[in-house]
Specification:
Elements (H helix, E strand, L loop, with lengths): L2 E9 L6 E8 L4 E5 L6 H10 L12 H9 L7 H23 L14 E6 L9 H13 L4 E4 L11 H18 L4 E5 L6 H11 L6 E3 L7 H10 L4 E3 L6 H8 L6 E2 L3 H4 L2 H13 L3 E2 L7 H13 L6 E3 L22 E3 L12 H4 L31 H8 L9 H9 L15 E3 L4
Parallel strand pairs: 4-11, 5-6, 6-7, 7-8, 8-9, 9-10
Antiparallel strand pairs: 1-2, 1-13, 2-3, 4-12
């Protein structure tokens, strides 16, 4: 069997453009992959095509060999851009392997060890930062079946927060804890916001609400800072979603300060590299909770990993909080029941895309997440004007303001069936074949 072609599809999810790939073979079997990267999905698309000679014409079942060709042999460190492209191809190859063998991918990664995987909700708090509104939304999430949920209550904080903003952040957490009760797990997202001193003060205040973890309280680039927080925080620290190599995880793990690791399969090189990190974490008595803030293919990837990793903690999910059409572009969306996902037995990833329908949701440059702009929590959504403070509304709807997403552009992009999906001077299609320039 040989890979004959790759096709890339950019899809305009309102808060982050998704990049999907389809890897075709000479036997008619194709694999599905994803290479989404917030502000750079268009760039990753180009990287997928630039790496074409490293996988087209080769056997898709030789997954490790192809990864080495795309990483080692090109002798370039392209960071998340390169590794997102590599991951998209790697995942599609595993999908092909599973389809050819008639078995789910998790059977090639150690075999199924559980029938269902616990899941937590994210992306549900798309509203103004008012404790009572967010608490109401939390109640609705729990009523839908979730037993765990994550949120970033810190607004547009960067390095420090003034007393008023910090108090508001704590009031939001307190309101959510009261709304959902003591038995629901809360994960607090930090999004790399704080200095070490600020993170430790915030962690001390969070401890009263017993969160499951405090995620990425400081930037990931300085392992020493993350270790300093993790070693002194009364709340467990979770991190690792931005890492692109096994070596970065090894550097973090040697300190034995963090025990919740969050590899992002799409940044790390795909399924097999993520499985390796889980083994490394196990040697340090750690657990893994893979990052999953991308598209529906990434959700299927996480579910395959959750099926076979002994020290898998919990899976992240945006699938039910995204717009309804995002569940219509897949044949079997990954949706929870009672706070769990059923492990699947279908061959490969257990998911396929409606390739024709993808073109109805074209790429929009404004579709990206600006985490340090007021109102980012809206993720491109419209909410009643009464719920929005003037400064948040302004930051959200002005398409000329590079500080925030344009909800007007988002709305237009979701309603327009065709459009320029690649950029100025490129074809008005959300699909590009590898043979195209």
């Amino acid at each position: 069997m040989k890979i004959t072609d790759v096709q890339t599809y950019l899809v305009g999810n309102p808060w982050k453009n998704w990049l999907f790939v389809r890897v075709d073979t000479d036997e008619g079997v194709y694999g599905v992959g994803e290479g989404t990267l917030n502000a750079f999905s268009h760039t990753v698309q180009s990287a997928v095509l630039e790496l074409r000679d490293e996988y087209v014409g080769h056997d898709p079942t030789q997954v490790e060999l192809l990864l080495q060709r795309m990483v080692r042999d090109v002798y370039t460190d392209g960071g998340q851009i390169q590794m997102s492209a590599v991951s998209a191809i790697e995942v599609a190859c595993w999908d092909i392997v599973g389809k050819v063998q008639g078995r789910p991918v998790h059977e090639f990664l150690g075999g199924k060890i559980r029938e269902r995987v616990r899941v937590y909700a994210n992306g549900w708090y798309r509203s103004e930062r008012r404790p009572e509104i967010i608490a109401d939304r939390a109640r609705a999430v729990v009523a839908s079946g979730y037993t765990a949920l994550k949120m970033d209550p810190f607004g547009a904080a960067y390095r420090v927060q003034d007393r008023r903003e910090e108090d508001l952040s704590m009031a939001i957490v307190a309101a959510v804890r009261e709304a959902v009760g003591p038995d629901v797990d809360l994960m607090i997202e930090g999004h790399n916001r704080f200095s070490v001193a600020t993170a430790l003060r915030v962690a001390d205040r969070l401890a009263d609400y017993r969160p499951a973890w405090f995620e990425e309280p400081v930037p990931h680039q300085n392992v020493g800072s993350m270790v300093a927080v993790a070693a002194r925080s009364p709340v467990p620290v979770a991190t690792g979603e931005s890492f692109t190599s096994l070596q970065q995880f090894a550097d973090l793990m040697r300190h034995d300060a963090v025990h919740i690791f969050q590899p992002e399969p799409l940044f790390l090189g795909g399924l097999w590299r993520t499985r390796i990190v889980a083994g490394m974490a196990d040697a340090h008595y750690g657990v893994v909770a893979p990052h999953n803030a991308q598209g529906p293919v990434c959700s299927a990837i996480s579910l395959q990993l959750g099926a076979c990793i002994p020290n898998f903690y919990v899976q992240e999910s945006f699938d039910e909080s995204n717009e309804s059409w995002t569940r219509e572009i897949v044949d079997r969306p990954v949706l929870q029941q009672g706070g769990y996902l059923d492990v699947r037995s279908e061959p490969g990833l257990g998911i396929d895309l409606d390739w024709d329908r993808l073109e109805s949701h074209p790429y929009e440059r404004a579709h990206l997440l600006r985490l340090f702009s007021p109102g980012w929590e809206l993720r491109g959504s419209r909410i009643p004007a009464a719920e929005v403070e003037t400064e948040v509304l302004t930051a959200t709807v002005d398409p000329r303001d590079r500080r925030a997403e344009s909800t007007e552009a988002t709305a237009e992009g979701s309603e327009t069936p065709t459009g320029d999906t690649h950029g100025p001077g490129e074809p008005a299609s959300s699909r590009v074949e590898a043979g195209d320039g």
